[in-house]
Design brief:
The protein has 1264 residues and is mostly beta strands. Helix content is 6%, strand content 33%. The strands form eleven sheets. Strands 3, 4, 5, 6, 7, 8, 9, 10, 11, 12, 13, 14, 15 and 16 form a 14-stranded mixed β-sheet that branches. Strands 19, 24, 25, 26, 27, 29, 32, 33 and 39 form a nine-stranded mixed β-sheet that branches. Strand 35 and strand 36 form a beta hairpin. Helix 3 packs across helix 5.
Length: 1264
């Protein structure tokens, strides 16, 4: 150890069973990360290019600068971490952050830690004592395994961690605006210049980002007029204190190597698809360093940081795997990696640069990471020209007072505008705030008052951070809570996730978990800058000060402390007054005294057009609004309905039983994983404690939701509200899918009594209608005619009191009528409902007591003494002239266990293998066991959901046996029409008329929706159905076939005019880079001559470059390809694309090959050695020419040509987010690719003939 080095020690508990001291050796002077010149003591051997964010590249050195005796000794490493930006809807195996080491060899080496060790490191990073990219730890005792890219370090379980180089102490670098603790503050600093370069990677196979250097330069640095870019937005959000310079810190001009300003092309000697991310980045850093050293022959650097402050790398598409992330960056480091188009998105680049600045992600109100969409560290804006967002107050506070020393350097704002708030000491306080996006308009404190941009609220627990999220200036394109006062939670001073806890509009309040109340007293977006007055109180009973107004003037002095209550009792007036008694502030929204919300989830795996769900109030409340989860940002029509009680039953398809409370024809959501808030309900929905209430949210957008485990099951709850699993809906009151969990947030105010209602009493002799209120006010004297204050005060006397002294009546009490009301009705009106409705009920009818409809039950069953064992069964039910509903199903069990019942309207064929065409209506418990030769109405979980059978319509059923079931019994049918019938029917004189049940098909055991091939015989299922009659005039709204949500896309290689070779066809590979299947809808290509030409398109799963059974390279295609398009196509010649429509499925994370061919026409192409076409979803490889074409299954007689061609054309596609989306256009697609392999060849239903005694072994088991 060098002389003068101090030794610091502290204890860190790693686990309940193990506590050990952690030693820290703090160097007197930090290492200079930019040093890299080869000095006299440098090592001669070539070292890998700098993947070490922390400093020098080379073998480990001791503190005196010499080499260790053992160059392979594991003595220390610089702690590093990588954070990945997950693409919405994707998941990253292994998590979104990886911890590793740089041991001085230049590699990022994964560091395996046990959970207590990871937790300990996380806490040190959170406190700022450990800085990723700078802090070093002692690895003595660690084990090393593997070599090269497979190398990793492991610490023994429970071993303490010795930190050799700290970040900063818990209390270092803190500033404060109030200066109550004598810490001082940090004032505005000088401009920080940071040098950036983008390195555009080409691999050994010619793969390169399709974005040109000029496009990248313009989008990152704004070199060709791009209005919103990384450089411009970093200047805007930093108060022009962070200056991005495209170039190098030292050395000669880049003009000889840069392809565009700030963009340098580099080539690596490895393939992207054969190597890991770490290996690719190592190679890229080395290539970049060599490129820069090539123009500086006199100064050979060993660390890329000698040239640049930050290096941005970009590669072609997603390699080496499906790449569920858009980019990744080193936390506290200098490197960032982008794939494909994402380098062009300014918000994505700022997000990644935020990690370089030691900023963690920001979570939202649903408790999930990324879902704070008021902050660039949430899931950012994924588009070019869309990046005008800022960091949230918690992140700004971190950078202002605890900045990373090398990547941030110093705060960007004046510390006077960051205020610490301690209501326990100072009581209620009010602050004037502005949005950070307009910070350039901050007042000077002399002619215009200063406005706060962040409040840190002491709560006794985790601090809360308050901001005003003004959607102006640098924050113009903010995605959530525009012009709201926003509340965040952030623990520590270093690298830690911040969380958006809530936001409020003018006049509304948010209560923290510790009881602090944050109120937006006023918000004014008309003035420039926009302003908000924010009050912070210990509790709801404190009164906010009135020394703040939403204008840009100094506050007038207050003459006295405002009282909690009005100076006089509030009288009940005959009508509300029309003028305020004092000067009014900016108009406020309805006051929310105590705002709460209940979030369900945003982890979706399904979606359609809406959801129905119910809640149960545990206290009186009013529900004030909702936030939903949309699949895209598309504009559509949104509707919200509500009804008292449960939605199940007829309300699922009958809009007349609902109350529409919102219709928005131009609603646009925020997309995947983002809460999309709706407008506050004009009439809040009141729910009485103990009562159920249902909601139906429908959006043509569509919406995303989550598959549930049981409709009506409690999914989540808090102290005020219970939320239950519900159903998904296709169309408006259309097809129902269940169980489904609505994704969203419910906003409400607890302890809000319902509005007063009226009750009417009618006698049989004289009509006496008495209207009373449930909470009549006390009588008072006449209202005063003048204000109690002679002249208006400069500002309002006080904020509105939390609760009015006396609640007014809902409307003035009507004067008594001068004469009796209408004559009595012939019979008493129905009794009032148990729960008051939110709107007046319809007037009583004058008809005499109607005849109540009485339904009749009809059973149609067929028994047997012998039969065939069926593993599952399909059949159809045809109605006659009478409407009815099917309420139960009977089987004859032969070792049946668990089973499920599905139905669909219309024919069963050809949808037997299309799950999304069916809806489950009943299922048994997994342990259900009715035995053998038993005719039973099974015990259904949640009963059998009635299926309406309209007159003259057909409904199909599918009975599937699951688990360890053996079978049910059926009857053999040799008719070629497997659904011939009737297998059985009801008599014409029955209450439901003639209803017939057909024979049908059987399916395989344990494989849902997998019917036997059509060449097997048909079977009729024994057992039957139970029907109930429906009232005359019943209707059923028709619904469309269900489909799943899709997102359209296009990948295109534009016409260059360089295509000069004519071929009969092209074969090429399309790689699906994502985790969702792709529906290819249209193929565009270039034909040589004008006119009408016959075109065919073929495809196959996997590569076209292979061989099997003599089919070399699949070129004599030998039935290995499927034709998906064949027809005439018009061409206008070589200057425009021709197109043909098709349907083909490119499976997720897989390769699909296509061939576009013509026997007579020529396709135009050109020879190429590189030039893969790609975006973040698909990638088209170089193509192989087809030199002749004979159609059928022998397409060519030539071997596969070694020449590679550039495909000039386009593919139009849809990203499919559900199986229904695929099956709606391609019902032949096999959902489970293993299903076919699991089929036992020749498996047939087993004939069972046993002599049994009727009435003994075949008995009816009553379960109802």
């Amino acid at each position: 150890m060098k002389a003068g080095t101090t030794l610091l020690m502290w204890v860190l508990t790693l686990a309940p069973h193990a506590a050990a001291s952690i030693q820290a050796h703090r160097r007197d002077a930090a290492e200079d990360d930019s040093r890299g010149l080869r000095g006299p003591n440098s090592v001669d051997r070539k070292l890998p290019g700098g993947i070490n964010d922390s400093g020098k590249n080379g073998v480990p050195t001791d503190e005196d600068g010499g080499q260790y005796d053992d160059p392979d000794a594991i003595l220390e490493c610089t702690i590093q971490a990588i954070s990945f930006l997950r693409i919405p809807g994707q998941s990253i195996p292994g998590g979104e952050e990886q911890i590793g080491c740089d041991d001085g060899t230049g590699d990022f080496v994964p560091l395996e830690l046990d959970q207590p060790q990871r937790h300990a490191l996380g806490k040190l990073a959170e406190s700022g004592e450990l800085l990723y990219g700078l802090s070093k730890i002692n690895l003595s005792g660690a084990t090393k395994s593997g070599n090269g890219s497979n190398k990793k370090f492991s610490l023994p379980t429970g071993k303490s961690i010795s930190i050799l180089k700290k970040g900063r102490g818990k209390d270092e670098n803190k500033g404060g605006l109030n200066d109550k603790n004598g810490r001082g503050g940090r004032n505005l600093q000088a401009v920080t210049n940071k040098y950036f370069l983008v390195f555009r990677i080409t691999d050994s196979g010619g793969r390169v980002n399709a974005q040109t250097p000029q496009e990248i330069s313009d989008n990152v640095f704004g070199t060709d007029g791009d209005q919103i870019n990384f450089k411009s937005q970093m200047a805007a959000i930093s108060n022009n204190k962070f200056n991005v310079i495209p170039g190098v810190k030292i050395g000669n001009s880049l003009s000889s190597i840069q392809s565009a300003k700030g963009v340098v092309n580099i080539t690596i000697g490895i393939r992207l698809d054969d190597n890991s991310d770490n290996v690719i980045l190592n190679a890229a850093v080395e290539a970049a360093l060599a490129r820069l050293n090539s123009i500086n022959p006199g100064s050979q650097m060993t660390n890329l940081k000698a040239y640049v402050d930050h290096a941005l790398f970009t590669k072609a598409g997603c390699y080496p795997n499906s790449c569920p992330y858009a980019a990744y960056a080193y936390i506290g480091g200098y490197r960032q990696m982008y794939h494909g188009i994402y380098i062009n998105y300014p918000a994505v680049v700022i997000h990644e640069h935020g990690h370089n600045m030691q900023l963690a992600h920001s979570g939202g109100r649903n408790g999930q990471t990324y879902t704070d969409h008021t902050c660039l560290m949430g899931n950012p804006l994924f588009a070019d020209e869309l990046g005008q967002m800022c960091f949230n107050p918690a992140k700004n506070w971190q950078m202002q007072f605890n900045p990373h020393p090398t990547t941030v350097g110093q705060g960007w704002y004046d510390s006077r505008d960051f205020i610490e708030v301690n209501t326990d000491v100072d009581g209620a306080q009010t602050f004037k705030m502005m949005g950070v996006g307009e910070y350039n308009l901050q007042g000077n404190g002399v002619s215009s008052p200063r406005k706060a941009i962040a409040l840190q609220v002491f709560t006794g627990g985790t601090p809360q951070y308050i901001g005003f999220n003004s959607a102006k200036g640098a924050n113009l394109q903010n995605k959530e809570a525009d012009d709201h006062v926003t509340i965040y939670e952030y623990s520590g001073t270093g690298y830690a996730v911040s969380s958006l806890k809530g936001y409020v509009t003018q006049g509304n309040s948010f209560t923290t978990t510790q009881g602090r109340v944050i109120t937006a007293q006023c918000i004014n977006t008309v003035v420039t800058p926009s302003l908000a007055c924010v009050c912070v109180r210990r509790n709801i009973h404190e009164t906010c000060p009135t020394n703040c107004a939403c204008n840009d003037t100094f506050p007038a002095p207050t003459t006295r402390t405002p009282s909690i209550s009005p100076t006089t009792a509030a009288p009940v007036t005959a009508a509300p007054s029309t003028s305020p008694t004092t000067a009014a502030p900016v108009t406020a929204a309805p006051t929310c005294l105590t705002c709460y919300n209940l979030s369900t989830t945003f982890a979706s795996n399904n979606g359609s057009n809406g959801n129905m769900f119910k809640v149960k109030a545990l206290v009186d409340m009013k529900i004030t609004g909702l936030s939903i989860h949309t699949a895209t940002t598309n504009t559509g029509t949104l509707k919200v309905w509500e009804k008292a009680g449960d939605y199940k039953g007829s309300p699922e398809s009958n809009s007349a039983e609902w109350n529409n409370i919102m219709t928005a024809s131009g609603f646009s959501g925020l997309g995947l994983e983002m809460p999309s808030p709706l407008d506050r309900f004009e009439d809040p929905v009141h729910v009485v404690a103990g009562e159920f209430h249902s909601f139906y949210v429908a959006f043509t957008g569509p919406v995303r939701y989550t598959n549930g485990v049981g409709e009506g099951t409690i999914y989540t709850q808090n102290d005020h509200l219970i939320f239950y699993e519900g159903v998904g809906k296709f169309g408006e009151f259309g097809v129902t899918y269940f169980p489904r969990v609505w994704n969203g947030i419910i906003d409400y105010e607890p302890n809000s009594a319902p509005p007063p209602t009226t009750s009417t009493t009618t006698t049989s002799t004289t009509t006496t209608t008495t209207t009373t209120t449930t909470n009549p006010p006390p009588s008072t004297s006449s209202p005063t005619t003048a204000p109690t204050t002679p002249i208006p005060t400069p500002v309002p006397t006080s904020s509105p009191t939390p609760v009015p002294t006396n609640l007014p009546t809902s409307r003035p009490t009507p004067a008594p009528t001068g004469s009796p009301t209408d004559a009595p009705t012939p019979s008493p009106t129905p009794a009032p409902t148990g729960t008051p409705t939110n709107k007046p009920t319809s007037p009583p009818t004058l008809s005499l007591a109607p005849t109540e409809f009485q339904s009749e039950t009809v059973e149609m069953v067929k028994h047997t003494n012998s039969g065939t064992i069926l593993r599952s069964a399909y059949f159809e039910v045809q109605a006659g002239e009478v409407w009815s509903q099917i309420t139960d199903l009977q089987i004859i069990s032969y070792g049946a266990r668990a089973m499920e019942v599905y139905y669909k309207y219309g024919d069963a064929q050809p949808y037997e293998a299309t799950p999304c065409a069916w809806r489950k209506v009943a299922e048994t418990d997994d342990n259900y066991n009715p035995g053998y030769w038993k005719s039973v109405w099974p015990v259904w979980v949640n009963k059998f959901e009635p299926v309406i059978l309209p007159a003259n319509q057909k409904v199909s059923f599918y009975v599937a046996l699951t688990g360890s079931s053996y079978g049910i019994l059926g009857e053999y049918n040799s008719n070629a029409d497997r659904y011939s019938g009737p297998h059985q029917s009801t008599p014409a004189e029955s209450a439901v008329g003639v209803i017939s049940m057909s024979r049908g098909r059987k399916g395989y055991s344990g494989q849902r929706f997998n019917p036997y091939p059509t060449y097997y015989n048909g079977y009729g299922m024994y057992g039957g159905l139970k029907f109930e009659t429906l009232p005359p005039g019943s209707t059923l709204a028709p619904t469309a076939a269900p489909t799943g949500s899709t997102v359209p896309g296009l990948i295109e290689a534009p016409i260059t005019g360089e295509a000069d070779e004519a071929v009969k066809g092209l074969q090429f590979e399309v790689e699906n880079l994502g985790s969702q299947d792709i529906i290819v809808k249209e193929l565009k290509f270039l034909l040589q001559t004008a006119g009408t030409h016959h075109i065919e398109v073929w495809y196959r799963d996997g590569t076209y470059q292979g061989s099997s059974s003599g089919c070399d390279n699949w070129n004599n295609w030998c039935n290995k390809w499927s034709r998906v398009a064949s027809g005439n196509c018009y061409s206008s010649g070589s200057t425009a694309f021709s197109a043909i429509s098709l349907v083909a499925i490119a499976k997720a994370n897989a390769t699909t090959s296509f061939a576009v061919v013509s026997a007579k026409a020529n396709l135009l192409t050109r020879t190429a050695t590189s030039g893969v076409i790609g975006n973040e979803v698909l990638e088209i490889s170089l193509a192989s020419p087809i030199e002749d074409y004979h159609a059928g299954n022998v397409q060519t007689i030539h071997a596969l040509s070694p020449t590679k061609m550039k495909f000039e054309g386009a593919i139009e596609y849809d990203v499919a987010y559900s199986a229904c989306a695929i099956h709606s256009v391609a019902p032949w697609v096999v959902l489970d690719p293993l299903a076919a392999a699991q089929v036992v060849a020749g498996e047939e239903g087993e004939e069972v003939f046993e002599n049994v005694i009727e009435g003994e072994d075949v008995g009816e088991e009553s379960v109802q």
